Amino acid sequence: MKNFKVKDLVITSLFIALVYVFTWIVKIQLPFAPNGGLIHLGNVPFFLAAIFFDKRIGMTAGALGMGLFDLTSGWVMWSPMTVISALIMGYILNEFNYKDLKLKNLLISFVLATIVKVLVYYVGEIFILSSFVTPLASIPGNIIQIAVSSVIVLVLLKPMERVFKNI
Fold it and tell me: How far is Cα 100 from Cα 143, in angstroms, rounded to an integer?
């Protein structure tokens, strides 16, 4: 935790809470996935944290915020997949965008984050559901979840850049 300041701890805690709340409050249950599937907006503060702050902040905010949601809302078996995918997605978003915020980098990182989400959940659901076919039903929901959040982040990017620049 070298060079991790109190300010970083406060920002990380704030974003963990934002990710959790956005996941909890703004969610849509999908009727076609094995266990309903879930589209939520917790990725919006997660992506913003990963893009604008140190990778430890973004990765931790996504992994803990959404992981805690899974643990407290009946999605316990999905929690390991959530934590693993959020850590990798946060790393990717930060690596592509933290020092050099360009539309091309954002789009590439959103596509890579989507691929990570789909692959991690597919593999995890193979074990949970004991099937190679059934988890395929979750893929559209995972893609929609990341796509919706990515569009919202693109809309919020410039106003948030001004806000976060002063932190």
Answer: 25
Tokens found for residue 42: 């917790």
pLDDT band at 94, cuts 50/70/90? very high
CATH fold for domain 6-165: Arp2/3 complex 21 kDa subunit ARPC3 (1.10.1760)
Q: How long is the chain? A: 167
Q: Where are the domains of the chain?
A: 6-165
What is the rounded distance in angstroms from the CA atom of residue 58 to the CA atom of residue 135?
A: 27
Q: What is the pTM of this model?
A: 0.92
Cβ(147)–Cβ(107) below 8 Å: no
Rg of the Cα atoms in the chain? 15
Tens digit of pLDDT for each residue in 51-71? 999 999 999 999 999 999 999
- Among 50, 46, 48, 60, smallest CA distance to 9 is for 60
Tokens at residue 121, please?
Answer: 């959940």
